[in-house]
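[job 0412] stage=fold_complex status=start
inputs:
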Amino acid sequence: EKGGYKHFMLKEIHEQPRSIADTIRGRVLPDGSRIVYKEIGISYEELALTKKIYLVACGTSYHACLIGKYMIERIARIPVEVDIASEFRYREVPFERDSLFIAITQSGETADTLAALRYAKKSGVKTLTICNVVGSTASREADGVFYTHSGPEIGVASTKAFTSQIVALYIFTFALSKAKRANPADINEIFLSKLFHLPTMAEKALKLEDKIHQLAKEVYKKPNFLYLGRGLNYPVALEGALKLKEISYIHAEGYAAGEMKHGPIALVEEGFPVVFIVSDDLYLEKTLSNMEEIKARDGFIITISSSKEEKLKKLSDRFIYVEGINSYLNTVLFSIPLQLLAYHVAILRGCDVDQPRNLAKSVTVE
Ligand code: M6R
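[job 0412] stage=fold_complex status=done
writing structure:
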């Protein structure tokens, strides 16, 4: 049942090239020229009218929402609000007209997410769910469903479901952007066609496992970790930290790299591990200066990056190069070594990675 792997989590991490391909299949044509809208249950015309989007979820799915915000705002040019489900439902949100509410949930059974979904529906807002489990409560109650089709996820720590949520959001963003005519068609197509490289690139990212395993041996006894990123990599940092704390019980925090000097830098002393997630984009320069600040305090810098910039390598104590695609899809590729790092650290610490203490696969109480 674990397909030759020691744990479901490891199996699910390795399944990602396939699960990502399954999320893409049938939604976009291989030449990137057409997006299939019908199954979403929300018409092209309705999408075209959308003026505001609310993305709501818990845990890892919430991190996918944050990534979605960066994608939708930049590409489809629609304002997006993101919230944690348990907060959203008590906020008494004054919904704006022509809003779309999207609940992201692997299981489709998370109590807080369902409550937020019901609240939005009751308020007369159109609802969509990005969901993995076919026939789940969320999929039955929302007006529309975008299934991630990543296959059953057994490990309590979400891995393949997360990367499929990002892929679903990427496709949805382009559907939206086409409906809104936010970008010239050829730009849409160039970006969409990149998506078809993702399964192969995920396969390449998985090949980093030995390197990550060696790294895990160096750091598994550290009591604290900081994960930093900017832009789309900020939620990737949050997810990297969540993964590590969930299964290894090491205290880990994710932060926007620019926020570091507003507090967390106080923690940094000799050997303190800081994981930087860096794309080859407009944030690179700014992130380099954050790295210098850590270096000056003798922190231990681990860099996961798609850039080969010399300065970046020089500042890093350990450098993991991940071949990238674009800043949007790199969030998927960077998540893979971060999942593997959490997994190997947890194993070295003798933890039960598939059944971490105090956690349940789906949280059905509020
Ligand atoms: O099934 P859902 O996506 O609604 O679950 C949300 C969270 O409970 C879930 O992501 C949780 O944070 C996982 N343990 C993360 O690994």
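[job 0412] summary: The longest strand covers residues 99-105.
[job 0412] exit 0
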